[in-house]
């Protein structure tokens, strides 16, 4: 089984990378089938935002801007789970990473019923807002949001300070343990229980003709 993790921080070896590596190492320590974790740094890439051109709705489904976003989508679609991590900027996620996620999820990502976890890092506050923002992507993609015993927020300005955040370390390690269990449970379930069909939804707005 394989999990794709995206580091949305501009700093390749910063706190978010540290949190993702903690999860990767915890996966390796959990008994059972091997779970490979590939960490991809996208936070320093030059990524333009979504322009709502609608090209991704055509076949084959992919973004019109053929860059790292389409490459990432291929990896996630082939994987069994996903992790995303971002630092907190003004109570929100990093702007460059939001451009990446907007296009990645909107252009037809296949994440339904795959375990997914989000983690954010901050010096002091704003973590909950950014954490919920990341989980919105999962909620609208029918992913299974992986639980831990607390919100996925770690604290620190560098890797050394992250090591001092004992509870934060435990949060992400526990999430890795829970995600490993969910990955194996879903693998077994798919052999016994047919997956639900995608619900045919209606697209409406709040404008009504009288």
Note the topology.
Elements: E1 2-7, H1 15-29, E2 36-41, H2 68-78, E3 81-89, E4 92-93, H3 95-106, E5 115-122, H4 127-139, E6 144-145, E7 153-155, H5 159-164, H6 166-192
Parallel strand pairs: 1-2, 1-3, 3-5, 5-6, 5-7
Antiparallel strand pairs: 3-4
Helix pairs in contact: 1-6, 2-3
Shape: globular
Task: State Rg.
Answer: 17 Å
Stretches where pLDDT falls below 50 for ≥5 residues?
none
N- and C-termini, Cα separation: 54 Å
Sheet of most strands:
7 strands, mixed
Helix content: 40-55%
| Structure summary, number of beta strands | 7
* Element string (H = helix, E = strand): EHEHEEHEHEEHH
- Counting DSSP H or I runs of 4 or more residues, the number of helices is 6
Secondary structural class: alpha/beta
Average residue pLDDT: 94
Sheet-strand content, in percent, reads 15-25%
Observed structural traits:
210 residues, alpha/beta, seven-stranded mixed sheet, 40% helix
């Amino acid at each position: 089984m394989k999990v794709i993790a995206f580091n949305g921080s501009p700093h390749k070896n910063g706190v978010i990378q540290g949190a993702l590596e903690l999860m990767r190492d915890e996966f390796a320590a959990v008994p059972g089938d091997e779970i490979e974790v590939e960490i991809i740094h996208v936070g320093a890439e030059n990524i333009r935002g979504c322009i709502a051109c609608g090209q991704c709705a055509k076949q084959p489904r992919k973004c019109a801007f053929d860059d790292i976003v389409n490459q990432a989508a291929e990896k996630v679609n082939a994987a069994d789970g996903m992790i995303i991590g971002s630092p907190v900027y003004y109570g929100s996620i990093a702007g460059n990473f939001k451009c990446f996620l907007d296009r990645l999820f909107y252009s037809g990502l296949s994440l339904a019923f795959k375990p997914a976890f989000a983690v954010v890092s901050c010096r002091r506050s704003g973590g909950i807002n950014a954490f919920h923002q990341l989980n919105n992507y999962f909620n609208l993609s029918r992913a299974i949001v992986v639980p831990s015993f607390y919100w996925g927020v770690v604290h620190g300005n560098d890797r050394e300070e992250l090591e001092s955040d004992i509870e934060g370390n435990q949060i992400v390690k526990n999430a890795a343990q829970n995600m490993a269990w969910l990955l194996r449970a879903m693998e077994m379930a798919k052999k016994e229980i047919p997956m639900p069909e995608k619900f045919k939804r209606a697209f409406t707005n709040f404008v009504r003709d009288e």
